[in-house]
Every structure is written in structure tokens, then in C-alpha cells.
Specification:
Layout (H helix, E strand, L loop, with lengths): L1 H17 L4 E4 L4 H12 L4 E5 L14 E4 L5 H8 L5 E3 L11 H24 L5 E6 L28 H18 L4 E6 L1 E3 L8 H10 L6 E2 L2 E6 H14 L5 E4 L2 E4 H12 L7 E2 L1 H18 L9 H9 L6 H7 L6 H15 L31
Parallel strand pairs: 1-2, 1-4, 2-3, 4-5, 5-6, 6-10, 7-9, 8-12
Antiparallel strand pairs: 9-11
Helix pairs in contact: 1-7, 2-7, 3-4, 4-5, 8-12, 9-10
Length: 382
């Protein structure tokens, strides 16, 4: 099966290469995008990336890629970026677990929904071929009577409860994709769970949490769990969607379900730093997070919120992912979250973000990445 998957993937990549046209990747500085670009370059694919000049584009340093500058919220610059491309990976998104103020909500909507609309329209107008769009497991529905039961691609998002702007925006992203398919466009959705792994330059919430953990600033945790995906697995999922996915379909990619306690055990294993044993009851933490988020969103909107009501609601559901469709139709084979945590730790350690002298060095070989903040309780996946 693995050989069949490799053949399918390689044939898709060779088709892109033989066309002498670049593949466009949006969101190439983010966690998924950075890992995807690195894999494509390694595989010999010609890659063009759409960047914003005022953003951190460190993830692309040293990579042989074509750089164009613009903003997916601007149709003209998006169209120019796509001119001459063959195939698109649309990974760009504003990821957030806060409700935020009106400015924040509008930014989430414009980046995620209007940005996706622009990418799809520009791809149609430039005849760019298949577009693989990064979706979110947050936009997949669940069993209302048993939220922890595995969710598959057929389950509709439930809009009758309180949800985060990000979750609602990713549902609308799927709507834009299906709207494009109705117009005859070739679009496939690669649905992403909480990503763990290296090349986390910005860094992600989980990357920041790992750095905070090793510095001793994660002193307690909240119960719950989520479906996690190794960075290498979600990259493989995108490649499989490009080479073997069916137009108009979405595929869920996860590696393993883990509780927060499981993740802390892995952090202790890789770093040698003892994990916190104090567990904060979910109802208490939820009330505290509501108060903190309300205040910060209104009076300090730029202050990073590490533990939010939306994140706690996600963790409480203990959501599992059903990946049977991706396995059956694409030949997807997930790997290990334990190995992904090792890669994430090695990456941040090499980058100098693991500053605690008591933290043990990772086993070589390892790579490089970034630094960040402080908090008393562990944040959660987006």
C-alpha cells in the first residue's frame, strides 16, 4: 500500500514538474505551509510562494523558491501571483481561538473566507488547475449525543451552539470551495487537526506551549483531548489530495487522539522536565478564561491570549477523527505523535527557544526554530 501511495504521489508531482510551471503555496510561513514547501522543494518541485512583506517569512530562508508579494485579500495581487502556475496549495489562514473584538472578527473573515474566495477565483481565471485547500477539523460536525465519537467527513457543523469566529469562518471556507466546484473548478479540501512537529517558525500555539513547558511556566493543566496530526502527515495528506483526491471532496487527516495529560507525558519524556500534576477543574478554568478573555479582547486586543473559552470548549468535547476515507481513497497511513513531539522539541531546541539548562538535548539530527511567552496553564490546539 505504501508503494502505491508513493507512486500516486510521485506521478502527481512529476506532472507538475514536467509542465515547467511552478506550484503556488499560500501561507508558506505558517506551520503547515512551511512543512509543505520544504517537502515540495525536497521532492524537486518548482515552488512559488505568496508572501506579505511585513510578515515573518523566516521559514523560507535558504529554500530555492520563487517569491512574490501580495495579499490574498486583494484579488489583483493574488491573480498576479497565480499567473503561470499549475496547481495551488492554499494553506493561508488566520488561526485563532478567541472571540475577539469586531476588528479581530473582520480580520478572521477577510483572511479566511474572502481570501479563499480570491484564491479560487484567481485560480479559475489563470487556469491554474487543481487547488488543495487546507480545511479545519473544527469545521467538521460531531455526534451531538456523544461529541467524543469519531467524526467523519459526512458530519455537518452544528451552528446552534456558541462557536469561535475561526470555526465559523472555516465552515464558510468549505462553502466557498463547494461553490467553486459547482462552477466547474477542481478543488479538494485537506482537513487538518491540531498540528505537531518542526518547522514551526511563528510559532504555533502548541509550539509556544512546548517552550513554556520547558521553562517551567506550565504549572497546571485542564483535562480534555483532541485529534492531533503530525506535521509530516498533514503534508502527506496535502500531496495525496493533489495527486489522488476527488474534486469536491474533503478528507480528514489525523495521526492520533491524545489527551492533554498524554501530551504532557510526551513533553516530559523529550525534555526531562517533570510535568505538572495539578489539574484545574474545567468549569473553574472556563469561568476564569471567560473573564480574562472578555477583558483582554476589549482593553488589550493585541495581548496574546493563551487559554481561551473556545479552546476549553474544544478540549471538553474530546473529539476523535475518523480517517477511514483518507485511508481508503488516498492510501493515507498516519505516523506517530510521539515522533512528532520529538521533532518539535528538536526544532525549538536547535533554535534556542529551549533555554532551561536542565532540559536535555534532543538526539541528533535536529533542525532549527523560534522563541516566545509565559503562562500558568497549558494552552490548547486551534
Amino acid at each position: 500500500m505504501a508503494n502505491e501511495v508513493d507512486k500516486g504521489r510521485d506521478s502527481g508531482l512529476r506532472a507538475a514538474e514536467s509542465s515547467a510551471a511552478p506550484v503556488l503555496v499560500t501561507g508558506s510561513s505558517g506551520h503547515v505551509g512551511a512543512n509543505l514547501v520544504s517537502r515540495l522543494v525536497h521532492d524537486g518541485v518548482r515552488v512559488r510562494v505568496l508572501l506579505q512583506r511585513d510578515c515573518n517569512n523566516e521559514a523560507l530562508e535558504g529554500l530555492e523558491v520563487e517569491r512574490v508579494y501580495g495579499d490574498i485579500r486583494d484579488l489583483d495581487s493574488t491573480r498576479q501571483a497565480l499567473d503561470g502556475c499549475r496547481n495551488v496549495y492554499h494553506c493561508a489562514a488566520k488561526i485563532s481561538t478567541i472571540d475577539g473584538n469586531q476588528v479581530h472578527k473582520r480580520e478572521v473573515y477577510e483572511c479566511n473566507v474572502l481570501g479563499t474566495r480570491n484564491v479560487l477565483q484567481a485560480a479559475r481565471e489563470t487556469d491554474a488547475g487543481r487547488v488543495v485547500v487546507t480545511g479545519s477539523f473544527s469545521a467538521v460536525g460531531y455526534d451531538l449525543d456523544d461529541p467524543s465519537a469519531p467524526s467523519d467527513e459526512t458530519m455537518q457543523f452544528y451552528p446552534m451552539e456558541r462557536t469561535m469566529p475561526y470555526e465559523r469562518s472555516k465552515v464558510l471556507v468549505e462553502h466557498e470551495c463547494l461553490r467553486a466546484v459547482a462552477l466547474g473548478q477542481d478543488v479538494v479540501i485537506a482537513t487538518c487537526c491540531a498540528v505537531v512537529g518542526g518547522a514551526d517558525y511563528l510559532p504555533s500555539r502548541l509550539g509556544r506551549t512546548l517552550c513554556l513547558y520547558t521553562s517551567g511556566k506550565v504549572r497546571a493543566y485542564v483535562d480534555g483531548g483532541f485529534a492531533f496530526v503530525a506535521a509530516r502527515d498533514i503534508v502527506e495528506g496535502h500531496l495525496l489530495c493533489m495527486s489522488r483526491g476527488k474534486a469536491g471532496q474533503k478528507y480528514i487527516f489525523a495521526s492520533e487522539y491524545k489527551t492533554i495529560s498524554d501530551i504532557l507525558d510526551l513533553y516530559e519524556e523529550v525534555s526531562g522536565i517533570p510535568r505538572p500534576r495539578r489539574r484545574i477543574p474545567t468549569p473553574i478554568m472556563y469561568v476564569l478564561s471567560e473573564l480574562a478573555s472578555y477583558y483582554l479582547s476589549r482593553f488589550h486586543p493585541d495581548f496574546p491570549q493563551r487559554f481561551t473559552p473556545g479552546a476549553i470548549r474544544l478540549l471538553k468535547k474530546c473529539r476523535h477523527a475518523n480517517i477511514d476515507k483518507a485511508k481508503r481513497e488516498l492510501g493515507y497511513q498516519p505516523t506517530s505523535i510521539r515522533e512528532a513531539v520529538k521533532e518539535a522539541y528538536a526544532f525549538h531546541y536547535a533554535r534556542g527557544s529551549i533555554t532551561n539548562p536542565r532540559a536535555k538535548p534532543p538526539a541528533p539530527p535536529f533542525s532549527s526554530v523560534q522563541d516566545e511567552p509565559t503562562m500558568d496553564a497549558i494552552p490548547t490546539p486551534s
